Structure prediction request, 142 residues.
Amino acid sequence: MIKMVTKRDGRVVPFDADKIKLAIGLSIKEDDVANTTMDEIINVIYYEVITILSNMNDVCDVINVEDIQDIIVTSMKNLGYVKSAKNFTTYRNKRTKVRERKTTLMKQISEMANASAAESDGKRENANIDGDTAMGTMLKFG
Prediction:
């Protein structure tokens, strides 16, 4: 079985199978539920994913979180839960956009707070105020 997972930020953390079950549960669409319960569908997909990951044990002990998500989508499609697979993919794309926005915002804030006016175009906008002073930085944040 896979022992470690490489997160998007590069951290390597212990593999937690419960997170897979949670992700599957959040993406199941009501349209995919026919004569079975949500728990039954979640378990069917979960065991399919775990089986695939167990078979990968010979290849590697560490897997990327994106690869796990790809396996979840493929398993959903193979088992006939196409709408849930689309829902999972849509959720992944939204989360990626949110992460990218946060990263961009944090870079901009870090630049305003830490870079000198000579290094940062954002601090050189006003000729009347020195961007390196506390007041200049505060005005830029405002």
Observations:
- Residues 82-114 form the longest helix (33 residues).
